[in-house]
Structures are given as structure tokens and as C-alpha cells.
Amino acid sequence: MSGNSIFTRKPLAAAVAVICSSITFGAHAETAQMETDEQMVVTATRTETSLKTAPASMSVITAEDIENNPGITLGDIVAEATSVQVDLDSTRAGRQTVSIRGMDADYTLIMVNGRRMSSASAIIRGNDFDLATIPANSIERVEIIRGPMSALYGSDGMGGTINIITKAPTNEWQSSLSTDIATPNDGNGGQQHSVGFTTSGALIEDELFARFSVNQTSRDAWQPYTGIRNDKGEITDRSDITALEGRDTISLFGTLSWHATENQIIDLDLGYSDDERDTAAEYSGGVNESNANVKRNSQALTHTGFWGWGDTQVRYSRENVIDKNAADVGNSTRDIEELTQILEASATTYLGDNHTVTFGVDYQLSELTNEENITGSSAEAYQGALFIQDQWTVTDKLTATLGGRLDKHELYGEEFSPRVYLVHQTTENLVIKGGAGKAFKAPSLTQNHSGYVVASCKGGCDLYGNEDLKPETSWNYELAAIYSQPTWEIEGALFRNEIEDMIDRGDIICKDGDEYDSTEPGCVVSGTTDTYTAYRTYENIAEAVVQGAELAGRFQITEQWSINGNYTYLDTEDKSTGEELLERYKHSGLVKVNWNPTYDLTTFVSANYRGERKIDTDITQDAYTTLDFGTVYHVNDDVRLRAGISNLTDEAVSSELEAQGYVMEPRTYYVGMTADF
User: Fold this and answer.
1) Got the DSSP string for 45-62?
2) Which of 132-141, 171-180, 213-222, 661-670 is predicted least confidently?
3) Which range has the worst mean pLDDT, 65-79, 209-223, 369-383, 523-537?
4) Which SS3 state, helix, strand or coil, does residue 6 take?
5) What is the DSSP letter of 107?
6) How far apart, in whole angstroms, are the C-alpha atoms of residue 178 and residue 478?
7) Tens digits of residue pLDDT in 117-129
8) Cα–Cα–Cα angle for 30, 35, 40, nearest 5°?
9) Beta pairing class for 461-464 and 534-556
10) pLDDT tens figures, 475-490
11) Rg (CA), the chain
12) Which residue, 135, 142, 210, is CA-closest to 179?
């Protein structure tokens, strides 16, 4: 935090700012760490608490981490965090997916300053548009919760939560400019560049503040395919097929913060992004050229108050996502639009010296307009909730967080999600924590709509919605320990998620006597060579278990050398079949060695390991390790240069997986610069 903060000028304003960082989920979080080296977080409780004693397993990525990271998207930025898996989706030319603790990407809740982002129903395939909405320059830190937080945030975050906390403006005007260029070395396209600019300061000193960020990112399509042999031994030309789609994105984010009185703050957040994607994807009939254009407009108005009895927050947020020319065939011109409106109110009060009670309500209305893939009734649903949480200081060493949330869904009625979490400061260096809770996730607006249909299986089947779907529920258990010393730290955790009615795509169905041929693809009429489109729908898996263990640590070897890493073991099972869940790595890990030979120079080498994973009943991806190298040089206090190589080992997927649409980015060189002024 800069010493020029507005909150250092008035004692009361300073106190207000610290409290506000917890109430507004980080809109003013820069002030929270003025006088302490302890990392503070807000996502786990809605109130400020230290990372080590937060009632959840968490990781934090700071603004400095983001600046030194070669990644351009949020997916790149969080890829090194414990139990966070970032893959390139096989359904649409390598869009990124972010999963936590072995749960699908659909189970990762993404928030900005505690406000959920929602575009799952508008974007049919490979949705990574949420990961490119907030300019990296505007991010103060990213808080990652491993495991569900349904008691506080409701559905969607059954796997985990990523909360993007933006920087707060101060009285002094400050600006930064950054640019990055990344180039694959194989000569098949894929060049990427990004330019970002952020400026912030006081329009009226100590009263009205503004921050504005803009980021532009472009990538040429990566087209590495030259030809493959089909079953007849013939070479099939695939040179126009994109392994990574071309993209051109501009995103803007602005904030006005009015300190109306000494105890009331009004924040207005405005966001806009325009994301264009060009794809030439294979399907059974040939090549489907798509030119998707996703536009997002978001607004949020927040009032934060500080009273003698406690603190309050009331917020209205609106997000409109339009996926233009979005559907499943290249010549479609119909738009898909999702409008989400959320009204929420919460309060925190202190009962005696031992209880911090947070309670509130929220109401969400989602409306989907999709004439391309939905017929019949409109797709919309409302969901309301009441929640309460008590952070109870039982003793000087033991804290209990007790909470519960009652959701009321228009289609699925009431669902109560309780949670209990204990944190014990066993010694000065050892923290032991763990708990149990219930999570709830309703089907999306497309999954449960009987009139929804979209082409799937590379054109060989149609995927239908299912109005008989049940919501998913799970019981989740966790036991963790953190042991810290001045020069090293180690953290371990055991977790288990027992999921009932897990939603998945059902088996491919053909008519009686006919069989499905994945090489065509389609159903083959018995006794002929004729094929027709197969059928599949969403269905509930009776019970599934996702469990495992995590280990993470850091060690400052000398003043110049340090090492950090993490490892995750994952064990999954579909209880109805006894088989493991598909597309999960049983073993994954990261080791990163950092060298700081001088104050101005930082270098690193990291090894990222992924064990084998089962893609389908008869397809397995082999284990692999990628190496990354990077360096950051501080020319002076205001200018920083960075460069490096990602996937130094040039790992690639097998031809079998390549034919299924899976891809891995090749060896890539990058350079970048950030200047403050």
C-alpha cells in the first residue's frame, strides 16, 4: 500500500477503509495491509481475516505475482495455484477451463469484488470469456478458495471460488502501461500480444475517486496441422483447422467511489468487453467456420455504511452477455443473450468480544434468450436466499465458523446448506483447521430446458436438455494443517466431496439394433453403411466421490535462492458404475526454483507435472512434464522488463487425442514490459 493513501490523512477514514475492505470484498482492500506482513483475505468469511487462519483452504495471487507472470488471461495467472487445473477445452479450439480439486470447470465460481459473473447459459461451448473480462492491470489480488462455499455464496461454486479483487484508487493520480508479446516457435501462427493501461486518482480530494483500466489482447489462430492418415491410409488435409482459435479482445473496467460522509461510501462499477473469436473446427460433415463475438456489459451500484452497531452493504448488479452468431453451425446469425440481475444486502455486527455475526439476503433473476437452440417456453428462473454466519472465538486458540444458507429456487424449491469450520492455533507456528458443509447447485437454464438441443459429438449426435433433472447436492469434508517458520512453510490437506445427483451428459443412444460409430460419427443403420444422428441428454449420476490430498510448501534457501511447489493426489469414482470420473489427473504437481542474484533481477525455472488421465473408456492421456523459464528485470523503480520461455520441453498431445480436439500450446517465447508514471 502506498503511503499516499487517502486513508492516512484522517484517523476515522483509515478505520473506515479497513472495515470497508471486508464489506466490499476488496474494493478498498489496498489499505488492509498497510502495517502488516500478514496476508489478509476476505472471501472465506466476508470479513477480513488472515490467510493462515481463514476457515477454508486458500491461495492468494498478488499484483506482483500477476505482473511477473507470463500469462495473459486469468486462467494463465491462476494455473500455478495448488489443486487448480487449467486445461484447453477439446470442444472449441482450445478455450481455457479452470477446475479446482477435480471438479469440472462448471463448478468454479468466478467473482469480481464478491460479485458473481454469469455467462454459463449464453456461451454454449468452451466458455473462457469470463477469464478475459477484467484487465490484469486493475487486479490487486486474486483469492482462490479450494472447496465449496455454498453457505455464503449459494450454488455454482461447488468446486471452488475465484474472487478477483480490484485495486482501490488513492488521492495521488497514478498510471501504468504494460505490454506483452508471445510467439510459438513452430511457425504455424499463434502469435499473441496484449496492451493494458490503468489510471486512477482523486477527482475531489478525500471524497471522489476514480479508476479506469483498458486491456486489448489479440492472438492469431494457431494452425499446426498438415495432414493425417484416415482409416483407409489416405492423407486428409487439415491445414485450415485451428488448434487454438484466433481472438481479438478489448475489455474496459471503471470505478467511481464517492465517500459521501465519513461513514458512508457509494461505489459505481462499470465493465465492458468485446471478445471476437475465429475458429475452423472439425465436425462429421467437414469444417465448421465460426466467427463468434461475445459482448458483455456489467454495472454494479454499492452502498456501504458503518454504524455504531456494525456495518452494512446493499448492492444491485446487472450483467448482460450477448453471444453474437454463436450457435452450432457456421452460417448462423442468431444471437444468444443472457441477462442476470442480482440484489443483495448484508450486515455484520459484533456480539460481545467473541462473536462476529454476518447475515443477509440476496435475490437473483436470470433470463436467457436463445432462438437458435431453444424452442417452446422461455428460459428463466429466479433464486432467493437467506444466510447467516457466526465467527465465534471459542478460546484464544480456537475459532469456530458456523453458517447456513437457505436457498429458494423457482424450479427446485428450498435447499438448506449448513457449514461448520474449526481453526486451532495449536502453537505459534502450527495451525490446524477443518470442517464440513453442504453444497447445492441447480441445473443451468439450458440443461433443464426440454426445448434445448445443440449439435454434439462433432456432429454425430444431438444433446438435449432434460426437464426432469434434479439439483446437485454434496457433503464436503476437509482437514488441513499449516506449519510456518521464518524461512519455510508447509501446508497439507485431506478433502472428500460426496456428490449426489451429479449432472453429466448421458450415454449416446441409437435406435434398437443400431450401433454408434465414432469415426463417422453417427449411428450406423444395421446391415447398411447409412448413418443418422444419435441422441443424448443430460442426466443425474446417483452418487459420485471426489477425494484426495494436497501438499504445498515454500523454502527460502538463501537470500538469493528459494523454492516453492505443490502436489495434488486425486481419487474419483462414479458410484453407479464403479469407474473413475473422466478427464481428471490422478497426480499433478509443480516445483518452482527462484533465483534473485541482485535486487533488480529475478529469474525462475518451473516444472509442471501431470500424471496420466482417462479421457474415454478406451483413450488415456500419458503423463507429461512441462518446463517454463522466466526472468524479470527492474530497469528502475518505474520500469520492469520480463522475458521467458513456456513449455520449454515442447510437449504435445498424441495424434489420437489431437483427433478428438485436445491440444497443448507449443514451446512459446514471450517478452513484456510494465511502466509506472
Assistant:
1) TSS-EETTTSSSEEEEEE
2) 132-141
3) 65-79
4) helix
5) G
6) 40
7) 776 666 666 667 7
8) 55
9) parallel
10) 999 999 999 999 999 9
11) 25
12) 135
Would you say residue 16 has pLDDT above 70?
no
Closest residue by Cα to residue 476 from 422, 434, 439? 439
- 3-state DSSP call for residue 13? helix
Cell numbers 472428500 correspond to what residue? 496
Among 125-134, 142-151, 631-640, name the one with the lowest average pLDDT. 125-134
Q: Closest Cα partner for 271 from 204, 217, 213, 219?
A: 213
Cell digits for 623? 503423463
- Which residue is it, cell 469414482? 573
Closest CA to 518 of 661, 329, 663: 661
SS3 category, 363 = strand
Mean pLDDT of the chain: 85
In the numeric block, the cell 469450520 is attached to 421
d(CA 646, CA 632): 15
What is the C-alpha separation between 220 and 217, in angstroms, rounded? Answer: 10
Q: Rounded to whole angstroms, how far apart are CA atoms 174 and 197?
A: 11
- Please spell the DSSP secondary structure of 582-637, one letter per residue: TT--SEEEEEEEEEEEETTEEEEEEEEEE--EEEETTEEEPPEEEEEEEEEEESSS
pLDDT band of residue 440 (cuts 50, 70, 90) is: confident
Question: DSSP string of 456-517?
Answer: EGGGTEEEE--TTPPPEEEEEEEEEEEEE-SSEEEEEEEEEEEEEEEEEE---B--TT-EEE
